[in-house]
Design brief:
By secondary structure, the chain is an alpha+beta fold. The chain has 2 domains: 271 residues, Lipoprotein localisation LolA/LolB/LppX (outer membrane lipoprotein receptor (LolB), chain A, Clam), CATH 2.50.20; 100 residues, TATA-Binding Protein (2-Layer Sandwich), CATH 3.30.310. Helices cover 22% and strands 33% of the residues. It contains 9 helices and 18 strands. The strands form 2 sheets. Strands 7-8-9-10-11-1-2-3-4-5-6-12 form a 12-stranded mixed β-sheet. A 6-stranded antiparallel β-sheet has the order 13-14-18-17-16-15. α2 crosses α5 and α3 crosses α7. The longest helix is centred in the first third of the chain and has 13 residues. The protein is globular, with a radius of gyration of 22 Å. The two termini are 41 Å apart. The N terminus is likely disordered.
Length: 388
């Protein structure tokens, strides 16, 4: 179990070329001369093509552009994550550094050679942050602070959980379409050129009213079936919330030396085991836990969430067991952030505050109940009223 947890925190998955790209974004790279002319294909056939793709080796460059509609989000996250790492902005710990990807625009380079070797380099002006998984080791280096993070004993990336999967791409496509059911529309929305490669566009749209998701679009490489680009659009309009895709991609196997790592001269090395001990001793999470507790989220998981509704309009609800906090009681670094996000609302449930993003919204009532979902604020109010 420890190895599984380490993998999820630190390893750059080989699936970064595929569904993992959903966590990052790229301004679309469409051909100026128009979309490519490709043979017609159905949504089921395109899903089968994705499922049959055996791409494990690649290298490339992409940009990250994420717009959650949050004010000063990276500053707040940086402060909390820095406190959690114990090293502030000078930490090479991936759990602190990779929070940068949730806002703004970034350029990254990646390389992957199967489940045992991956490398990601985050370029930030003249500075770089590199994360390398090679065999059972993970290395990370922050050039700005000359700090190195090292961990041994991680398992292979991209290993699937032990569960029975459909035996063929067609069977998997059937299951996906069946699961979509009455709540989702899945179609082929034409073609595109991404990173110089011809691709089909798989478009996924909610049929339900009340979701904040307008659509999800995946550009699928026509030759290999590898997803090259992912775009998540909100019903609020404007820039995509997430827009992910390669600007350059090469499916040749990277050289083995690409995944070698040598500790730079004079760099300070922090071992992952020591960082875990610090966390277990309560040194690091105290600041983050206190910050969450001060805004009423510290005990959010005490009673476990209940799910109201289904599909795209599902809402998770739980009871924090405490009265809703006052914004003025929150830590200084979170106070302005919460003020900018929160709208006071009222209904049969009493009064509360809705905290908004372009996709996920949350309602906290005066008696400490929380309603969260990729739904409109009104849908959260309706759910709270129905619970009374």
């Amino acid at each position: 179990m420890a190895a599984q947890r380490k993998t999820s925190r630190y390893v750059v998955p080989v699936a970064v070329a595929g569904i993992a790209a959903a966590t990052i974004g790229l301004v679309p790279a469409l051909a100026a001369s128009g979309d490519p002319d490709l043979p017609e294909i159905t949504a089921q056939q395109l899903i089968e093509k994705i499922a049959a793709s055996d791409t494990e080796a690649l290298s490339g460059t992409f940009k990250i552009s994420t717009d959650l509609g949050l004010p000063a989000f990276d500053g707040l996250l940086g402060g909390l994550a820095g406190g959690a790492s114990g090293d502030g902005e000078g930490s090479a710990d991936p759990s602190a550094q990779l929070t940068k990807l949730v806002s703004g625009t970034h350029t990254l380079k990646i390389a992957a050679d199967g489940p045992e070797r991956q490398k990601l380099t985050l370029l930030d002006g003249k500075e770089q942050y590199s994360l390398v998984h090679n065999g059972d080791e993970v290395w990370a280096y922050d050039s700005a602070s000359n700090q190195v993070f090292h961990e041994k004993g991680v398992e292979e990336a991209g290993q699937a959980p032990e569960k029975e999967l459909p035996a063929s791409p067609k069977a998997l496509a059937d299951e996906v379409l069946k699961a979509a059911g009455d709540t989702t529309s899945i179609t082929v929305g034409g073609t595109a050129n991404v990173a110089g490669r011809d691709a089909y566009r798989l478009v996924i749209e909610p049929k339900q009213q009340g979701s904040t998701v307008e659509s999800v679009t995946i550009a699928v490489d026509a030759a290999t079936g590898t997803p090259l680009k992912f775009t998540l659009d909100s019903t609020s309009g404007g820039k995509p919330v997430v827009d992910a895709g390669f600007t350059k991609v090469d499916f040749a196997r990277p050289a083995a030396s690409e995944f070698d790592f040598t500790v730079p001269k004079g760099a300070e090395v922090t071992e992952g085991d020591q960082l875990e001990k610090d966390h277990a001793a309560g040194k690091a999470p105290e600041d983050l836990e206190k910050a969450l507790g001060d805004v009423g989220l510290g005990g959010a998981g005490q009673n476990g969430p209940e799910i109201v509704g289904e599909g795209w309009t599902a809402i998770a609800t739980f009871d924090t067991g405490a009265a809703a906090p006052k914004t003025e009681d929150a830590p200084k670094e979170a106070r302005g952030f919460l003020d900018a996000l929160g709208d006071e609302v009222s209904g049969k449930f009493g009064t509360g505050t809705v905290f908004k993003t372009k996709i996920v919204n949350a309602l906290m009532t005066e008696d400490g109940k929380v309603y969260v979902g990729a739904v409109t604020p009104q849908a959260l109010v309706d759910a709270a009223n129905a619970a009374k």
